[in-house]
Amino acid sequence: MNLFSVLNLLCGLGFFLFGMQIMSDNLERLAGGKLESTLKKVTANPVVSMCLGAIITIAMQSSSACTVMLVGLVNSGIMQFSQTINVIFGANIGTTLTAWILSLSGIESDNLLLVMLKPKNFSPILAVIGVFMRMLCKKDRNKSIGYIMVGFAVLMIGMDFMSSAVSPLADMPEFGALLVKFTNPLLGILVGTLFTALIQSSAASVGILQALSLTGSVTWGMAIPIVMGQNIGTCITAIMSCIGTNTNAKRVAVMHTLVKVIGTLLLLPLYLICNALLQFAFHNAPVDAFGIALIHTLFNLLTTVLLMPASKQIIRLIERIMPDKSAATASRQDRIGRLDERLLNAPSVAVQECGNYTVEMCREARETLRKAIGLLDHYDTDTAQEVVELEDDIDLYEDRLGTFLVRLSAQALSRRDSHSVSLMLHTIGDFERLGDHAVNLKEVAREIHEKGLSFSEEAKREVDVLTQAIEEILQLTQEAFVAGNLELAHQVEPLEQVVDKLIAKTKDHHVVRLQRGECTIEMGFILADLLNNYERISDHCSNIAVALIEVDHNSFDTHQYLNDVKYGSESFAAAFETFAEKYQL
Question: What is the mean pLDDT of the chain?
Fold first, then answer.
């Protein structure tokens, strides 16, 4: 064992971590929004939640990454703290898969098929296939699969480097003397914890232990406490991620750590007592890579079996240790559109949550306009104040979502997620402006109410027709955006053109009424304000619908689209005629 062996060990560790990161990023990208939708399915059924946690961890290839994502979701108010405990149990089980894959390195056989099961033998094939998929495939999904294959090959190259680097240790008496000290279980736990905390990956530290086991110098009695310590050490990532979060998010990280610590405090003394009484024959026998994977899995399975029935008590304990004093004072505006930056570690999840908030913003914009339009006929101060408050909420959505989406757009996104981010960046400004026009309409209604004014019968009838058209275009826009319905989106622009013609006719009719003395100049100003706001509302609805259509075409050339649909489009002409017949003055 010399300097070059140490350098090979560090190089192998670097390859291992890099390969795992490539796999993790592309597995998560391949899963897309399914990770987020999977988390949404977390239920009161602990077994279902545990299975979901295992699936997510397998997809992300890291229990720490899963826990960090939970911290972000809880900090954003998307998940409740109490929902996370069973997901964490599942994550602890899901993370053991990597150790089982690495354990295949110990296969020894003359059978070609069995030999090909060794990762170091089949990973070069995966690497070649992955490189060709990355170079030749056009679909993002296939490219991600190629990256996953290459990442796995790099990971296994790292494992092979580490195994080769530590193999000379088997012949070193100094190494044997050092290992004797690890017969002390407390020292084993401490070393496993510190080393895993240092590299922030239990999979990598377990992989190194598996590589050391190939020297034949590591016994079962040594490996068991070290693996337990490695499980505790992996919690450092979640603990670091909760810095600056709210109390509930901190509780998630504490719970992740507490589960590991309690599991160690229960299982290690139990094992030592049983060994003292029964004198296990395997205790001092050399452990191999398969045995370490078995220890890793049994520890997490038994911890889950022992602690899952007491999950409610664990939640109450953590809530007593960490009382949430801010919950009572947290305002609704504190939670509006607030997305935790930790979600940027799982971009597809972040995209889905931004989408959920944008849908909420869309619905709130329409609801604000609905209330403001209602004030034109029946004004009351409570509803007027509610319009102002809702518009403030919409401003917050636009500010927080816009900031987060800009940061999210800089991440490595799939083509689909990139289109979604572009759509949201193009539309949140329009939703915010719809809120502004709701406040303008509220002011129009207030002026009519306070001055005791009213439209002439003819003007009122025309405004009512126009209002119905505006309400329909808002409904079409919301339904198209929420459902991603392109068929409905194509209906918006023809109706917008009808609204423009209705407004033009209403203005012409108003001039005639002025000349006949049937309307006052003061009401003319009010009508002009109303019509201008209606026109801008329909314009913003058109912008949203066009953005929805253009993102499907991978283009945001709005002017080109509008020219195409207005001139020579039969479907546009047919829809326009239908709406023109429906809304006549």
Answer: 84
Report the C-alpha gap between 254 and 258 in whole angstroms: 6
Per-residue DSSP letters for 286-341? BP-HHHHHHHHHHHHHHHHHHHGGGHHHHHHHHHHHS--SSTTT--HHHHTT---G
Q: How large is the greatest C-alpha to C-alpha distance in the chain, in angstroms?
A: 112
Q: Of 163-172, 466-475, 558-567, which gets the smallest average pLDDT?
A: 558-567
Q: Tell me how many domains the chain contains.
A: 2
Compute the distance between CA of residue 382 and CA of residue 173 in angstroms, rounded to an integer: 84
What are the tens digits of pLDDT across the range 520-576?
788 888 999 999 999 999 999 999 999 998 887 665 555 555 565 555 578 888 889
Closest CA to 119 of 100, 136, 138: 100
| Same-domain check for residues 469 and 573 | yes
> Which of these, 366, 349, 356, lies nearest to 401 by C-alpha position?
356
Terminal alpha carbon distance of the chain: 92
- The H or E element that residue 2 is part of is none
CATH number of the domain that residue 471 is part of:
1.20.58.220
Q: Where are the alpha helices (DSSP H) in 61-213?
A: 63-75, 84-94, 97-103, 112-115, 119-136, 140-166, 173-180, 185-199, 202-213
358-396 pLDDT per residue, tens = 999 999 999 999 999 999 989 999 999 999 999 999 999
If asked whether residues 458 and 564 sit together in one domain, one would say: yes
HSE of 337 in the Cβ direction (CA atoms, 13 Å)? Answer: 22
Tokens of 561: 């689209």
Token output for 461: 């009838």
Q: Are 160 and 209 in contact (CB under 8 A)?
A: no
How many CA atoms does the CB half-sphere of 207 hold within 13 Å? 32
Contact 579, 495 (CB under 8 A): yes
Structure tokens at 197: 């905390």
pLDDT tens-place string over residues 282-336 = 988 999 889 999 999 999 999 999 999 998 899 999 988 888 765 544 555 666 7
- pLDDT level of residue 344 (50, 70, 90 thresholds): confident
pLDDT in tens, 83-94: 888 889 998 998
- pTM for the predicted model, two decimal places: 0.72
Does any domain span residue 110? yes
Q: Which two tokens stand for residue 449?
A: 């109410």
Q: 372 and 249 in one domain?
A: no
> What element of type H or E holds 236?
helix 236-241
